[in-house]
Amino acid sequence: MMGTDDLAALLETLCPMFVLVGADGQISRVGPTLQKLRPDQPMAGREFLEVFELIRPRDVASLSTLLASAGAKLHLKMRETPRTALKGLIAPLPDGKGAVINLSFGISILDAVRDYALTSADFSGTDLAIELLYLVEAKSAAMEASRSLNLRLQGAMLAAEEQAVTDMLTGLKNRRAMDGTLGQLITGHLPFALMHLDLDFFKSVNDQFGHAAGDHVLQQAARIMVEETRNGDTVARIGGDEFVIIFPGLSDEDILSAIATRLIDRLQAPFLFEGNTCHISASIGIALSSQLKPPTAAEILNAADLALYEAKRTGRSRHCLYSVVAGRQNGNAEHGVASQL
C-alpha cells in the first residue's frame, strides 16, 4: 500500500495543482504550483473548505458531502484575494482515508500566469496548458510584430505624404500644398489674404558666390517668413526665389502692410555664407479674396502677381496691394489703396 509521502511525491510530478485531503477534511499536502498561489500562507494543516469556496456543487459543508460528488467537476474560488477561479475533480482514497482533488485554472489560466508569474515548469509536462501558453505567446508576438509593422507603414505613408507637399530645400510647403490650401479656403467661402513674394537681387548671389550660397539664402529667407507668420498660415516656395504666403481669416490691410514691411526689413539684412556677405531684398504683392467675387485660385494668384509687378516697377524692396493695380487699370488710381516702401 502506497504511503502518504509516496503518494504526494507522485502527485507533485503528475499533478502540481493537487490537494491531498484527510478524512477529517484537513489538507495534508498541496502541489507546488497550487502553493505558489499563496506563498506566504501554507495550506497544509488547514480545512479544505476554509481555503477554498465551493461554487458548484452548492451547499457542501463537509468532506463527506464533497466525497459524494466524486467524479463530478468542481468549481471553486480561493477565499482570500485575489479570488482566483479554479476547476477540479475529486477522487476518494481507499478505506475512507480522504481524497485527492486535482485542480486547474480552466479558462482563467492566462490571468493566473500573469498574476502569479507562472512558467511552463509550474505545469505537468502533458498539460494542454503548456500548448495554450505557447500559442498565446506566439499570438502575442505575431500581433506585436504586426502592430510594429503597421506603425512603420503608417509612418512611411505619413512621411511620403508630407514629402509630397514639402519643398525639400527650405522645408516650406510646395506649390501642390499651396493649391490644396487655396482650394479649401475658396470652397469653404473663407476670407483670406495672399502675398506673392519675390527675392530681389537673388541672381547676383548665385552669380557671385555660387548655388550653395543661393541655397543658404533661400533657407534663411524661408526661416524669416515662418517666424513672421502665424502657425495657421501657409508659407510655400513656388519657384526658384518665389514664395506665396496665405493668411486665412486676415483681411486687414494695415496688418498685412506691417507684416510685409517686417519681411522686407529683415530680408534686406546681410546674410553671411562662408565669409561672404550676401545682399538681397524682397518685393511683395498682396491680394485679398474679398477683392474678387467669387475668387478663384488662378484669379487671386494673378491679382497678387500684378501687385508684385507693380512693386517691382516702382523700385523693388517694397510692397503693393492689388487695389492700387486695379485702380490704375480702371483709370482711377486715386481710389486705390497702396502700401509701398
Q: Could you provide a short overview of the structure?
A:
By secondary structure, this protein is of the alpha+beta class. Helices cover 44% and strands 21% of the residues.
List the helices and strands and how they pair.
Elements: H1 4-14, E1 18-21, E2 27-30, H2 32-36, H3 48-51, E3 52-56, H4 63-67, E4 73-78, E5 85-92, E6 99-104, H5 109-116, H6 128-164, H7 175-187, E7 192-200, H8 202-209, H9 211-227, E8 234-237, E9 242-248, H10 253-268, E10 271-273, E11 276-278, E12 281-288, H11 297-313, E13 319-321, H12 322-329
Parallel strand pairs: 12-13
Antiparallel strand pairs: 1-2, 1-6, 3-4, 4-5, 5-6, 7-9, 7-12, 8-9, 10-11
Keywords:
alpha+beta, six-stranded antiparallel β-sheet, five-stranded mixed β-sheet, single chain, 341 residues
Description:
With 341 residues, this protein is α+β, with helices and mostly antiparallel strands. Helices cover 44% and strands 21% of the residues. The chain has helices at residues 4-14, 32-36, 48-51, 63-67, 109-116, 128-164, 175-187, 202-209, 211-227, 253-268, 297-313, 322-329, and strands spanning 18-21, 27-30, 52-56, 73-78, 85-92, 99-104, 192-200, 234-237, 242-248, 271-273, 276-278, 281-288, 319-321. The protein has a six-stranded antiparallel β-sheet with strand order 2-1-6-5-4-3. A hairpin with a 4-residue loop joins strand 8 and strand 9. Helix 8 runs antiparallel to helix 9. The N and C termini lie far apart (113 Å). The model is unreliable at 332-341 (pLDDT under 50).
